[in-house]
Structures are given as structure tokens and as C-alpha cells.
Design a protein that fits this description.
single chain; mainly beta; 36-stranded parallel beta sheet; 42 strands; 1% helix; 40% strand; elongated
């Protein structure tokens, strides 16, 4: 799996420059090295080479950089703009380049960061131990590690309408509770948007395309992932490792591995997602009590693949025109049983092999009112005899090139067919 441990991926740099001293000069409209901001301030436009950066040293103030570039030209450790124990302030219209952290936020609550640019740093924006902050309408591109690093104990953060592209590892990382990540673009990173060690995120209306790993990945539970686009990624478009997540109306097309991959999940819901032209459309591994409704998985290698799990419901899904099979249940060498699942009202037509392809260790499942027609091989194919007590009721497996059903005979095979038509 494409997972970079956060303790290796980003370093929390702490230095004496965080401390505000009475002798530090006030920045005023023309900032100088190691100056501080203690009052509402607007910078004059221009380029300021500040190798030790600036510090925000008061709460409830506004710094408007007015488009000024705060630049570090020397090597060494320094942050561009630092907030340490600062609350209720606004930092806007700043351009920060060449620092360890472009903007560093530590133990600071209820602040707004708006329309800032933090490119070509180690991390663009870095936030830890800080509550109720907003990062909006900013650009964080071409940073060595992450665009936006939203770290531990920084709950209730809003990350909205930002561009986080071409960063060395992740565009946006979040590991705190109750975060809303919305309307962002995270393209051409190693990974687009990454959620870990946390829960209760809302990830909505984001674009995560052309990343070399996952577009959107969540090693997390109790999240809502809705209306996102994750296309052309070199791994999976959306990768979920966790339980009780809800995925609604996402688009994940033309990814090299899977459109959507659900791993080790209990109680997850997938509704109305569209996954086309991927390696696999939607892949599931070890899933329990999930509900999968109304998804479209066309023109993939395999439309829907289920490898291990029980008590799941697959309803009203479409898996047409895939290169191999429409819906695959089980797989050779998979010893996690697939039991007591319900497949109802699904359509698997025009696939180059079979509509439904049943492999190893598949028992006590119900297939009802499904349609699998015009496939190049079977409508419903049991490829291995180690399946038993599956119930087929009122399905339509007609007009397939080889036959409606391929049903082997063996010591572990038993199937009930009630009202199922095949030809």
C-alpha cells in the first residue's frame, strides 16, 4: 500500500525564532529580519529577503502582506511566518518562499489564512496543536514535502478552495478530527489528499488527479467523501482503509490500479459513484456489513471485485463493457470466505468474459433479479467447485455467447436456481 509514515514524511521544526521578545523590532509596512507583528499591519508591495522570517506576536490582529514576497535566500532552518500561541488573527495576501515551513501555526486557535501563496518551501503550510482555524483560497505548490500539513490535535479545521499541486509527497495531509476539506485541487503530487490517525472528516468537491500514488486516501473511519474527482492517478483514485465511511457521487476514472479500493471495512456505504476506464472499477477486500448502491463501473479491466467478506448488500450497480468480467466474487488463492451477501438488481452486460464470475470460497450468498446479458462468455459463471449453498432467484442470464450459466459439478458445489432464466 502507498502509505508514507508521517513521522518520516515531515519534520516539526521548532526554534528560538518562535519566541516573541520585547526587543524584537516591529515589522511595520516594510518588514526586516526577525521582526514581529503586534498590530494591524499592511506591507508595502515588494520583495523582502528575510532569512529568519517574521513572527505574529499578538492575537486579534490582521497582517495583510499586500502581495509582498517574503523570501529566504540562505540555507538553514527558519520558518517564513510563525504563529505561536496566537488566536483570532488573519494572515492574508502573503507570498512565502524558501523556508522550512512557509507558514507555521502552533498552539494557535481561531485564525484565518486567506489568499496566501507558499511555494518552494519544505512544507507550504504546517499546522499543529491548533483548533478552529481556516485555510482558504491559498496556493501551496512545489514544496519539497507537503503542500498543507494539518497535524495532530488541530480539530475543527476548514481547508477550502486551495491549490496544492506538484508537492514532493502529499498535497494535503490531515490527521485531526472534524476537518472539512472542500473545493481543493491536489494534482501531480506523490499523493493528492491523505487522511490518517483521525476521523469525522468531510471531504467534498475536491479534485485529486494525476498523482503518482493515490488521488484520495483515508486510513480512517467515520468520514464523508462526496462529489470528488480522482482521475489519472498511478495507483487508485480513492483508497479507503477504515470503517463507517460514506462515499457518494465521486468520479474516479482512468486510474492505473483501482477507481475505488475499500480495504478492511465494516459499515461503509458507497452510493452513486462512477468508476470507469480503471484497472479495476471498485475493489473490496475483507468487507463486512457494507452497502453498495447505484454505482457505475464500466470499461475497466474488472468492473467490481469482491475478495473476502460477509453480510454486504450490492444493489442496483452497473458493471458493463469491462475487459474481463463485470462482477467478480472471490478469487483464486483467497481464503477469506465470502458469505451471506446479497446481490440484487445489478446489471453486468457486454463484458468480454462473464457478467458474474464466481471463484473460491463463496457460500450462502443470494443473487436476485440481476441481469447479465450479451457477455462474450457466460452470464453467470462458477469457475471453481468450492462454492455452495448460493441462491439464484429471478435473474436473467440470457443472450451470452457461451451460455447463460457455467455451473460445475463437484463435492463442494450446491446451488439453488429459482426462476432464473439462462440461455
Amino acid at each position: 500500500m502507498f502509505l508514507i509514515p508521517l513521522f518520516l514524511a515531515s519534520v516539526n521544526f521548532v526554534s528560538a525564532t518562535h519566541t516573541c521578545f520585547p526587543t524584537d523590532p516591529e515589522c511595520g509596512p516594510t518588514p526586516i529580519n526577525n521582526c514581529k507583528v503586534t498590530q494591524n499591519t499592511t506591507f508595502n508591495p515588494g520583495v523582502y529577503n528575510l532569512d529568519t522570517g517574521i513572527k505574529i506576536c499578538a492575537s486579534d490582529i490582521t497582517l495583510d502582506c499586500n502581495g509582498a514576497l517574503i523570501n529566504r535566500s540562505l540555507s538553514g532552518l527558519a520558518n517564513g511566518i510563525t504563529l505561536h500561541i496566537v488566536n483570532g488573527s488573519t494572515i492574508k495576501n502573503c507570498n512565502i518562499r524558501g523556508y522550512v515551513k512557509g507558514i507555521y501555526i502552533d498552539n494557535s486557535d481561531n485564525n484565518v489564512f486567506e489568499n496566501n501563496t507558499a511555494n518552494l518551501n519544505v512544507d507550504g503550510m504546517y499546522l499543529v496543536y491548533s483548533l478552529n482555524n481556516k485555510i482558504v483560497s491559498s496556493t501551496v505548490n512545489a514544496n519539497t514535502i507537503h503542500g498543507i500539513f494539518h497535524g495532530a490535535f488541530s480539530n475543527n479545521t476548514a481547508i477550502d478552495n486551495n491549490i496544492a499541486s506538484s508537492n514532493g509527497i502529499y498535497g494535503i495531509v490531515s490527521s485531526s478530527l472534524n476537518t472539512k476539506i472542500s473545493n481543493n485541487i491536489a494534482n501531480s503530487n506523490s499523493g493528492g489528499i491523505f487522511i490518517t490517525y483521525s476521523s469525522n472528516h468531510t471531504i467534498i468537491n475536491n479534485t485529486a488527479n494525476a498523482n503518482t500514488g493515490y488521488g484520495i486516501s483515508a486510513y480512517s473511519s467515520y468520514n464523508i467523501i462526496e462529489n470528488n474527482t480522482a482521475n489519472l492517478n498511478l495507483h487508485s483514485g480513492i483508497h479507503i482503509d477504515g470503517s463507517y465511511n460514506t462515499l457518494i457521487n465521486n468520479i474516479a476514472n482512468s486510474n492505473q490500479y483501482n477507481g475505488i479500493f475499500i480495504y478492511d471495512s465494516n459499515g461503509t456505504i458507497l452510493v452513486d459513484n462512477s468508476v470507469n476506464f480503471n484497472g479495476n472499477g471498485i475493489s473490496f477486500y475483507r468487507i463486512y456489513n457494507n452497502v453498495i448502491i447505484g454505482n457505475t463501473a464500466n470499461n475497466n479491466a474488472v468492473g467490481v471485485a469482491i475478495s473476502g467478506g460477509s453480510n454486504n448488500i450490492f444493489l442496483n450497480n452497473i458493471a458493463n463493457s469491462n475487459q474481463y468480467n463485470g462482477i467478480v466474487v472471490g478469487g483464486s488463492g483467497v481464503f477469506v470466505p465470502i458469505n451471506n451477501n446479497t446481490f440484487r438488481n445489478n446489471i453486468a452486460n457486454y463484458n468480454s468474459r462473464s457478467g458474474f464470475h464466481i471463484e473460491w470460497n463463496v457460500h450462502n450468498n443470494t443473487f436476485i433479479n440481476n441481469t447479465a446479458e450479451f457477455n462474450q462468455q457466460h452470464g453467470f459463471n462458477i469457475a471453481n467447485s468450492w462454492t455452495n449453498l448460493n441462491n439464484l432467484t429471478a435473474n436473467r442470464f440470457c443472450s451470452n455467447n457461451q451460455s447463460g450459466g457455467g455451473f460445475p459439478i463437484g463435492p463442494f458445489y450446491d446451488i439453488f436456481k429459482q426462476g432464473t432464466s439462462s440461455s
